[in-house]
User: What shape does this take?
Amino acid sequence: MSLQKIAPFSDVKEWTTDGEPAARAYSSLPTAALLDGCTFNVDYTVPEVTVSTGSVRLVDTNVNGGDQSWSTGAFIYEVDSQTVSLTDETTNHIYIEVDRSADDTATIVVNTAGIRPSETSLKIGEVDTTNNTKSEQWSLLTTNGNLTFPQQSAVSSVKSRISDGTVLYARENSTYLFVSDDTVYRLSPWKITDGDTYTLPETDANGISKARTGDIINESGAYFESTVSKTVSGTVSVDVSEANLIQHTVDGDVTYEFSGVSSYVDGASFTMFIEQNGSNSITWPSSVDWNGGSAPNTPSDGKSLELAFISYDGGTTWKGRPTWSNE
Assistant: This one.
């Protein structure tokens, strides 16, 4: 499996025929996506939702244009602002639907079953009239090819239509995801280079970040962590963006620093396993609040110590405690 982005267009062919919009078919796998707009303004007292103007890319099979044809193609539709009624005290599933055989009008469709009204439709969100909440702009395609959703739960609900290996992005907690075998996995964090700009790290042959290979979470909660192992001495920076399992052989006096917590999250944790090679001192960061009030004893030559660290404030302070020792 390889990870893939949903490029806006590739090998584009365009034509216009009566009753259809400018249609675009291309050789790479087309994916239905919201291109812009279509935000929700909900009146929970009626209840009803007004969907703003926008545009959508919908996918269909057996596409014919001029003297060419494609097994699958994508069509771009403008969406006019529309107000539709909601059902009270339930979850309302909001779709954009088109009927290519009739005209090029994109229609807002609502149902409570959560079933796509047709193959040429796209779910763009939900409105919960029980708790008066909304989740909007599902499958929003960014200019750099990321297919984005408001939350990971939204990805999980539409995973069956997402191609294996597709890179997705949950906007609520700035998390990259991918789908494989009908399961949603969380990828390791991308490198933040400038404000909201994310840069993909170097990847292996399967497209997984080399820095965090194997560090993924599936939607059922199974967690697979990556490990960094090295021999250390002097001032050592523990970068939690590289791995959550840190294994160090201490070969000289060490002063630790902790770094790498994204400014976009509050919580972070890692486990450290230390093996002493000699009679070396270990100095911990002042940001560590130790269980019991003081740091554990430094292991003697040939002995090991395992520790757990967790931060609730983005790495400003850490709760630390020993979890295992063979002293």
Summary: The chain is about 0% helix and 50% strand. Residues 13-218 form one domain. The chain has two domains: 13-218, 226-325.
